[in-house]
TrEMBL record:
GO biological process: proteolysis
Gene Ontology terms: cellular component: membrane
One Pfam family it belongs to: HflK_N
Record lineage: Bacteria, Pseudomonadati, Pseudomonadota, Gammaproteobacteria, Alteromonadales
InterPro entries: Band_7, Band_7/SPFH_dom_sf, HflK, Membrane_HflK_N, Stomatin_HflK_fam
Localization per Swiss-Prot or TrEMBL: Membrane
Keyword tRNA processing: no
Quaternary structure and interacting proteins, as annotated: HflC and HflK may interact to form a multimeric complex.
Name of this chain's protein: Protein HflK
Sequence similarity: Belongs to the band 7/mec-2 family. HflK subfamily.
Primary localisation category: membrane
Transmembrane stretches, start-end: 56-80
Length: 382
């Protein structure tokens, strides 16, 4: 039969403890035993007197107070990282800021909110927008910002990051709505970026968000997929136009210096020719002035000498042939230039006919008549 069945209840362990019927142990007895053991550990006398219970109560309270004080003291230490700044809230009210390092706060009284002050954060914005010329374009832009005032960043608005995101979207739609689609897709991207930056700073300035905009990046702008091919062709044509203009400018920059160089060379050659002509004329005049007194002193001799000099210049550059027209129908001549070139070789006979009449050999040693030569010279002078 189980000990807890009705009827005989002698097997109840709480009543038969120690061999006699006893009730459950009293809580005071348990605490007293525990106090005696603790007081024995700390040098007290583990007796059953009432003084030892009083001693245990005071020691336990002191020990608990000391442990609680230590736990409270150590729980107040905290660390603020190098890139952060701590916002101190005392009973929920702003009480100041803390610099990086190891700090201590009143637990349950003060609260610390760390704020990253050095990290550059990114915030994207994108969407389909209507341009000034009533075209739809999808624009993607990204803003980079940093916290400069921790108090304003935490307390000026409910969520500074969300406020900045809404301001960026508003500024982007305002600028795109006042720009043409061609400018957004092609050459006006930098202008759009600068305009969005300026408009964003104007929007967030009254709210004192404690933020500074570091940069605004224009990531992408494209038309809807339905008309993307047509816009791609237009953009390619504009890029070709710019490329052709650049090539033309490069060609002009290459041709112009060479043309200027040729002009300069021609000018210098003309100046040199002019100076040479003037010097030649001055030399001719000087030579004539020197010859004139000689001519006036002996005109015939001077005329004869000038004639011989002129003929020497003329005959020095021409082939010379001596012809003998005396002695019948045969005309004989001597090619003096050939004879001079063949000096040192054996004499040979050179036949030649010029009139179709009978030919006669002429020896290279034949000398022409001097009378005919003098007559020709005299007739030439006349």
């Amino acid at each position: 039969m189980a000990w807890n069945e009705p009827g005989n209840n002698d097997k109840d362990p709480w009543k038969n403890k120690g061999g006699s019927n006893q009730g459950p142990p009293d809580l005071d007895d348990l605490l007293k035993d525990l106090g005696q053991k603790v007081s024995g550990v700390f040098g007290g006398k583990p007796s059953g007197s009432g003084g030892s219970g009083k001693s245990f109560s005071s020691v336990g309270i002191i020990l608990a107070v000391i442990i609680a004080a230590l736990v409270y003291a150590f729980s107040g230490f905290y660390t603020i990282k190098e890139a952060e700044q701590g916002i101190v809230l005392r009973f929920g009210q702003y009480a100041g800021t803390e610099d990086p390092g190891l700090r201590w706060k009143w637990t349950f009284i003060e609260r610390i909110i760390p704020v990253d002050m050095q990290t550059t954060r990114d915030l994207p914005a994108a969407g389909f927008m209507l341009t000034q010329d009533e075209n739809v374009v999808r624009v993607e832009m990204q803003v980079q910002y940093r916290v400069v005032d921790a108090r304003n960043y935490v307390f000026s608005v409910t969520d500074a990051d969300d406020s900045l995101s809404q301001s960026l979207d508003s500024a982007l739609r305002y600028v795109v709505g006042h720009a043409a689609m061609d400018d957004i897709l092609t050459s006006g991207r930098e202008t759009i970026r600068q305009s969005v930056w300026e408009e964003l700073e104007k929007i967030i300035e009254p709210y004192n968000l404690g933020l500074i905009v570091v940069d605004v990046n224009f990531k992408d702008a494209r038309p809807p997929e339905e008309v993307k091919d047509a816009f791609d062709d237009a953009i390619s044509a504009q890029e070709d136009e710019v490329r052709f203009l650049r090539e033309a400018e490069a060609y002009a920059r290459g041709i112009e210096p060479r043309a200027r160089g040729r002009v300069k060379r021609m000018e210098q050659e003309a100046i040199a020719y002019k100076e040479q002509t003037i010097l030649d004329a001055e030399g001719a005049v000087a030579r004539f002035e020197k010859i004139l007194p000689e001519y006036q002193a002996a005109p015939e001799v001077t005329r004869q000498r000038m004639y011989l000099t002129a003929m020497e210049k003329v005959y020095s550059n021409t082939s010379k042939v001596m012809v003998d027209v005396e002695g019948g129908n045969n005309m004989m001549y001597l090619p003096l230039d050939k004879i001079i070139q063949q000096q040192g070789s054996a004499p040979r006979v050179i036949p030649q006919a010029t009139t179709g009449l009978s030919q006669a050999p002429v020896s290279t040693n034949t000398k022409p008549s001097t009378s005919g030569r003098s007559d020709r010279f005299s007739s030439g002078r006349n």
